[in-house]
Amino acid sequence: MKRHPALADLSRDHHHALVHAKTLTQTPDEDTAQTNAQRYIDHWNDAVEWHFIEEELTILPILQRHIPLPTNEHVQRMITDHAWIRDQTQHLIDHIDQGNPIKQTLLELGERLREHARFEDRELFPYLEKTLTDDELHELHDRSKRFRREHRGPDSIGPKTSRGDET
User: Fold this and answer.
1) pLDDT, tens digit (0-9, with 9 covering 90-100), for 23-76
2) What is the CATH number of domain 5-151?
3) Listed residue (156, 155, 131) closest to 4, CA to CA
């Protein structure tokens, strides 16, 4: 699906989340669970946590110009999913530290991560593309690039496009 450049990097992040979600939901035993959990936690620390913060700091301030955030179903779903995934990731880390079984936690986390990435790509992002003006989408893109340079490094920024090149 073709995305506005303002959302392209965030959408690419969702692809990586879906790969991790698949791995988490296809964990056959506790030994594999430990390996898969560590890979996910590394990805969480390097990308997912920053992705959530980026969305919250770049999308919400601009979107609030158009709608009341507290009552918008898309915003509430995004925030609720972010909170649940953050909590379950910490729950997973706690279980690993305590030596508790983690297979069921990985399954639940993987399913929710998959549902969340699909929700944002299939519902939230099209909603943003419809709701925000072209200038606001470009402002979002600029904010997103600045956030990524400061917190995630230049490799997290996708191909450059000119302002007039949306194709």
Assistant:
1) 999 999 988 999 999 999 999 999 999 999 999 999 999 999 999 999 999 999
2) 1.20.120.520
3) 131
